[in-house]
């Protein structure tokens, strides 16, 4: 059974984590959660309020990381999923995050990222020349990294599928699963 890696951290967007995590399990993929350390992660929920210039943040659910990023052997995984939230702001500074995430791009494996996950990918150089969706406030980061910002709910560029935010999840996962099934099908499906 192909294995999927989801990288998360404290302040990962609750909906973006759980939706993708449960979809991978539902499809029959063995799914592991990695974080800077092996611990119980605390997620957040973001919402949009009329008259508020940005989004609001509230405490979300918690979930245990299966392994620390330093213990991840990325070659063992068929694909990578990166939810957004505030976690990408600090994940991008983690040397093991950089090692693991870069592997998936260098090996041309499927990658799904959403919302603020683009902030963690931009410093790696992996967005250069790539059509990429992200939360609209991340447009300058995508462009400074040499990416082409696209305001879309499921932007497919090769084996990379990106989206703007949690309300795009059905389109995002539908597109990602088409890529994933072609590259790493689950036996018997």
Automatic annotation (TrEMBL):
Residues 3-177 form the DJ-1/PfpI domain. PROSITE patterns: PEPTIDASE_C56_PFPI. Pfam families: DJ-1_PfpI. InterPro entries: C56_PfpI-like, Class_I_gatase-like, DJ-1/PfpI. CDD domains: GATase1_PfpI_1. Belongs to the peptidase C56 family. PANTHER family: DJ-1 PROTEIN (PTHR42733), DJ-1_THIJ_PFPI FAMILY PROTEIN (PTHR42733:SF2). This is DJ-1/PfpI family protein.
